[in-house]
Amino acid sequence: MNYELKNKVAIITGASSGYGVGIARKFKKAGAKLWIVARRKELLQDVAQDLGVNYFVGDIRNPEDWDQLFEEVIRAEGRVDILVNNAGSAIKIEELTGQEDKAIRESLEVNLLGAIYGSKRAAGLMVKQKSGTIVNVSSICSIQAWPGWSVYAAAKAGLEQFSKSLYVELRNKGVRVNCITPSWGNTSFTEASKLPEFDSDIQNRVIQPEEMGEIVLNICCLPDHLVVPEMVVLPMVQEIVPY
Q1: Nearest to 15 by CA among 56, 75, 76
Q2: How far apart are CA 88 and CA 26, in angstroms?
Q3: What phi and psi, each to the nearest 5 degrees, are found at residue 32?
Q4: pLDDT (tens digit, 9 = 90+) per residue, 26-53?
């Protein structure tokens, strides 16, 4: 397979750290015309400068930010070939009775609505082009269950069902929709969600950011007539016992 994205215009959200940076590195190496997006300006600028790519400081929860992003990309590039909805956040991992309504709403906005807003705008362009790829990054929490993760899991489960439904809507219009469901990863999400820190051995055996980048790149480089609607990625070091 030819793992090249030469002259393909790609947008990656949540690209100031973690999986987003790993995906951006692989896309840049493959020749994509890359736009990376995140809220944290200084971190995003550092990544953009390191990779030599365009960046946009914005909040995926705001439709207006999405509109401005797509206006800038279209003005500069004339098209959008790939959208990777990678941005997400644990917000607050706690049993439902301890959650504030504000945190619940924010979790749904960051982990579900943001991707829907972005996909809507990308889909409109891609249908006109009769080509394009949308990749949504979900979480193993969408198909398993652990205490304290109910709100986050609900948002990610919604993202998976949204991805399936959007795939059905766009399949006959030349647009591919993919949903990747990863588990443990060596990213700042572990710290942000207040999970126990990995020891160095486990840290090296969970999903690495550039490994996720390779997976997303491979999916986007499939021949146009092929698609991977769903993919679950687990590190073999992790044992999952449902419920």
Answers
A1: 56
A2: 20
A3: -70, 150
A4: 999 999 999 999 999 999 999 999 999 9
Taking alpha carbons only, the member of 171, 173, 166, 196 closest to residue 184 is: 196
Alpha carbon distance 197, 220 (integer Å): 32
CA–centroid distance for 32 within its chain: 17
30-46 CB burial, b ≥16 within 10 A, e <16:
bebbbbbbbbeeeebee
CATH (residue range 9-233): 3.40.50.720
In this structure, the number of other CB atoms found within 10 A of the CB of residue 214 comes to 16
Which one-letter DSSP state was computed for residue 206? Answer: S
Q: Where exactly are the structural domains of the chain?
A: 9-233
Residues 6+ positions from 203 with CB-CB distance below 8 Å: 186
Cα three-residue angle 21-22-28, rounded to 5 degrees: 85
pTM: 0.94
Return the biggest CA–CA distance within the chain. 50
Query: For 57-87, what is each residue's pLDDT tens digit?
Result: 999 999 999 999 999 999 999 999 999 999 9
Q: Please identify which residue in the block is written with the tokens 């070939």.
A: 81
Q: Which residue has the tokens 């971190």?
A: 43
Residue 33 and residue 5: Cα distance in Å, rounded? 8
Rg (CA), the chain: 17
CA-nearest of 6, 156, 166 to 81 is 6
Judge whether 188 and 87 are in contact, CB under 8 Å: no
Positions marked active-site: 152
